[in-house]
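Q: Here's a chain of 297 amino acids. Please give me its 3D structure as tokens.
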Amino acid sequence: MKRLLVVLIIAAVVANFYMGAGTAHAQDEKNCLACHGKPDLVKTGPDGGKISLYVSEKAVAAAAHRYIDCTTCHTADPHKVETPLSKLSLAQKCGTCHQYQYKLHLESIHGQQLAVGNPDVATCVDCHSPYQDPHSVIRVLEHNAPAYKKNISETCAKCHGNQELMQNYGIVEKVYESYMRSFHGRAMQLGTYEIAQLDKATCTNCHGVHDIKSVDDPSSPVGGLDSLAQTCEKCHTGAGVEFARGFLGHKEASPTNIPAVHYTEIFFTIFMFSVLGFGALVVVVALFRFSVNKWRE
């Protein structure tokens, strides 16, 4: 039985390799790409501006929805659909199929802000398409997908690494930089193989996926020490509140934020430079003594 299973797995891998060896073609039953595949296809909007109607066949052929016909999303009469689509209308359209994920997103901090018309928040295509284009949404398990485990921190950093944007919401912490300096970030970055990176903690492990809440929300996985401790315990069994209390989060250690870490860092910085300085002095004195002895000879 085991041998049969191994043979079937090998056969599936080989078949997938050869089937994917050729050029993939998107399903286009209505031949939409005959027109929309032309880069110069545009229409004039209500304000007189030009709206591009170009859709890259190459991007669609590599997308997760390449086997779904255009009219599934654009309706049977696509020329009557309002363009350009807004972030809200795009999320609603995705939600017609991905109902569970859409419901979670509606309850998240991103979804709540999207509902009131905030254009800055992340929605489906921001996290699932490398080009923020609904026609190039990639499956999560593809290694180059923005939502693949090793790429999540960079995807979140598109917004949370933008200091000008974050300052508009009172977020002054350098989220991406602080994560990459942390043990989790370094472990993710230094992982030799992608499979070894899948068990490392990244943004979604602590904050959630489609249901991300504000850190000030009591229902957030990081909303308070008790919640943070429970989140840490998912990976660190028996971590407890004291373990969570030592977590810096995305803030720098300072005299007011975990002062023990702040002063320990200062001590070891001074100690390190003192040792290096003393070592350099010893080398200089030894070289000077060696030179003097040679000169005397």
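Q: Can you summarize the key feature?
A: Residues 17-83 form one domain.
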